[in-house]
Amino acid sequence: NLYLSVFQSWPSAQTPMYSYAQFLTDQNNYSESARIFNLHWTQFRSILQEPLREEALRNLIHAVHEQENAQKALSASLSPAASQLLELSLAYEKEYPATPPVRSIQFLRPSMHFKYGQFEQAIAESQKLFDKNPADDIGKRCFENLRVAYYKQKNCERTFGWATELLKQKSPGMNDYAADLRAIREESLFLWADTTEDDRRSAELFEKIARDPEMQRLRDKSLFNAYVRTQKQGDKLKAIELADQLQKISPNYEGLDS
Are 164 and 177 in contact (CB under 8 A)? Predict the structure, then answer.
């Protein structure tokens, strides 16, 4: 440290500065190691040779990430460390697009956006990573994050559209998500129908569930709700038709008698 305070601008300082930053990381002093790795990268990246250059950038990203992990998201504004992490992730992706760690480093971007409640950016970044490779671990984590983000936004129509579009994709690995996507599609359509104030439109959406052969879990409840909403709009003949259909497929459905 004393050596660096005197000779840090000298080319000979590259190795001791890098070693010192690694030592600080080993001691879990991420704030200081991030500072030294950043100084090292800024000062020596133009002269570093591979594979040390890639390693130095990756170690800087790791230190900044650990530094950021210790901070709580107090608002929707990114912390300085989170902002730097986004920049470093993009820089790594640009310079080393084919290395094994690149997917994990790319994943830091949606992670930061999720942490700070920036859901639109998080969804866009996650979808991009998922589409590129839905089969690997990062793809699976992106899918879970997307599921959570769409439900948190409470936009059932949008969630239904997202799941519907993904079910159409035939790329490798998508079959693993088919069951989850069908469940998301059915649940989101049901919630969309349930929260729709217009009785006619609500009844149409509930009927859509009841008529879809892939939506059997909520079929009976949806048909009953379609019957109730149709009654509310005063269409007694259609309501009777729906009640008869429900009685045929589920004669003991609770509430049907009344």
Answer: no
Place of tokens 């190795």: 15
CA distance 242 to 219: 12
How many Cα neighbours within 13 Å face the side chain of 95? Answer: 17
CA dihedral 108, 109, 112, 115 (to 10 degrees): -100
CA angle 187, 188, 191 (to 5 degrees): 85
In contact, 163 and 184? CB cutoff 8 Å = yes
* Strand (E) or helix (H) holding 40: helix 30-44
Residue 71 per-residue DSSP state: S
Strand segments, DSSP code E, in 71-114 are: none
pTM: 0.86
Pair 56, 45: CB distance under 8 Å = yes
- How many whole angstroms separate alpha carbon 143 and alpha carbon 83? 24
With a cut of 70, list the residues of the chain below it in pLDDT. 1-12, 255-258
- The span from the CA of 187 to the CA of 240, in Å, is 26
Q: Quick one: 98 exposed, middle or buried, by C-beta within 10 A (0-12, 13-18, 19+)?
A: exposed
Dump pLDDT digits (tens) for 43-62: 999 999 999 999 999 999 99
Show the tokens assigned to 32.
């200081």
Taking the C-alpha atoms of residue 85 and residue 68, their distance in angstroms, rounded to an integer, is 8
> Cα–Cα distance between 192 and 34 in angstroms, integer?
47
DSSP single-letter state for residue 49: P
Answer whether 199's CB lies under 8 Å from 185's CB.
no
